[in-house]
Automatic annotation (TrEMBL):
A Gene Ontology biological process term: DNA transposition
Domain Transposase IS200-like, chain residue ranges per copy: 13-131
TM region(s), chain numbering: none
Protein name as it appears in the record: Putative transposase
Listed GO MF terms: DNA binding; transposase activity
Pfam families membership: Y1_Tnp
Family matches, as InterPro entries: Transposase_17, Transposase_17_sf
């Protein structure tokens, strides 16, 4: 039963991967340049605190895609509450001017998208890797095709 994808806790062997997408409030495009890197660092730090492994992640201008291995001792909703809550505090600490745009402590949208990957982990990983390119291509399209 030993599989390279399996992880172990004290009395549990697990392989739980989730594709999660979440966005800032009002879907504002705020993740550019240095902010994009710093948001990535914040999310990596918070995942390390909870021993959540990031398989793949991409910070797009107006949303974030993450492929995560969340241990079964945490619920997905509990972990997302932690991730979005703590990251918004850390973002406001680094960028105090954003508090006025996002009503003090509400940086992220209320909801998020989550899907279990099952056996499609490689396809979802490739999708996330190419997400930024697809978003840029989509912005170049106009009413009559490419601009």
């Amino acid at each position: 039963m030993k599989n390279s994808n399996n992880h172990t806790l004290a009395h549990t062997t697990w392989n739980c991967k989730y594709h999660i997408v979440f966005a800032p409030k009002f879907r504002r495009k705020v993740f550019y340049g240095e902010k994009r890197r710093e948001i990535g660092e914040i999310l990596r730090t918070l995942c390390n605190w909870k021993q959540v492994n990031i398989v793949e992640a991409e910070v797009c201008p107006d949303h974030v895609h993450m492929l995560l291995e969340i241990p079964p001792k945490y619920s997905v909703s509990g972990f997302m509450g932690f991730l979005k809550g703590k990251s918004s505090l850390m973002i406001y600490e680094r960028y105090p001017s954003l508090q006025f745009k996002y009503r003090n402590r509400e940086f992220w949208c209320r909801g998020y998208y989550v899907d279990t990957t099952g056996k499609n982990t490689q396809k979802i990983k490739a999708y996330i890797e190419n997400q930024l390119k697809e978003d840029e291509y989509g912005e170049q399209l106009g009413l009559f095709g490419k601009k």
